[in-house]
Amino acid sequence: MFAAENGLKGDPRLQAISEAIRVVPHFPKPGIMFQDITTLLLDHKAFKNTVDIFVDRYRDMGISVVAGVEARGFMFGPSIALAIGAKFVPLRKPGKLPGEVISEAYVLEYGTDCLQMHVGAVQPHERALVIDDLVATGGTLSAAIRLLGLMESHFISLWSHAKWTTAIKKCGLILLGLTWRKDDA
Length: 185
Prior knowledge:
Layout: H1 2-5, H2 12-20, E1 22-25, E2 33-36, H3 38-41, H4 44-58, E3 65-69, H5 72-84, E4 87-91, E5 101-108, E6 111-118, E7 127-132, H6 139-147, E8 156-157, H7 161-171, E9 176-181
Parallel strand pairs: 3-4, 3-7
Antiparallel strand pairs: 1-2, 5-6, 7-9, 8-9
Helix pairs in contact: 2-4, 4-5
């Protein structure tokens, strides 16, 4: 579904990306099937193909901010931001950013956490792309949206929840990209 809807049906890059992602059962706790993208990073061609798919998708969408959720969003976000001519904004765990920050707490499938961002990192009328590795409960993504001062109902999704699940099963590409304008909030 994802591949066909996004002009990627039959694209050999998807198979290579899928094969480069290792699944680690029962990590970080029993019952979780962890999608380990560190193995994708070891394959320079699969890593480049992953970034290229995002760049192709978002290059002409007027994105001015790429926000990467710690830590896996840091692995892809800066490359995507650089390629599309946008700034990169890190969304970090508490205590990692110097200076004045704003915070947003959220619930994970296996606990709670918090994201922080520098005050003023995103301005009104900027269009943002959030890069995160996957959606389990949606807690991290919801926190990122709230932290950026945006509303969940105003975004264009690379994968909706249902499409994301289908994309995972079919191609293993687990990054999530969302865009929206801050002034739509």
